[in-house]
Design brief:
Distance between the termini: 15 Å
Largest sheet: none
Low-confidence stretches: none
Number of strands: 0
Strand content: under 5%
Shape: elongated
Number of domains: 1
Mean pLDDT: 92
């Protein structure tokens, strides 16, 4: 598999994993009685900010080489 396709798949899988973890966290909070009290659009922005934070961490440690 070409290196460029491998990197794209890695970034996409990281994107999905981070957003799935965030979604599960929000659902778990609501089930435990701690609602987020935020509209879905705000949660989406927070999720994207978390994703970009992790991408920077992954880049810093050379995980996307």
């Amino acid at each position: 598999m070409p290196k460029s396709i491998e990197r794209i798949l890695l970034v996409v899988s990281d994107f999905l994993a981070i957003h799935l973890a965030f979604l599960l966290w929000v659902l778990l909070r609501e089930r435990l009685g701690y609602p987020a009290n935020l509209p879905g659009s705000d949660l989406a922005v927070i999720s994207l900010l978390i994703y970009f934070y992790w991408v920077l961490v992954f880049l810093f440690f050379g995980l996307y080489r």
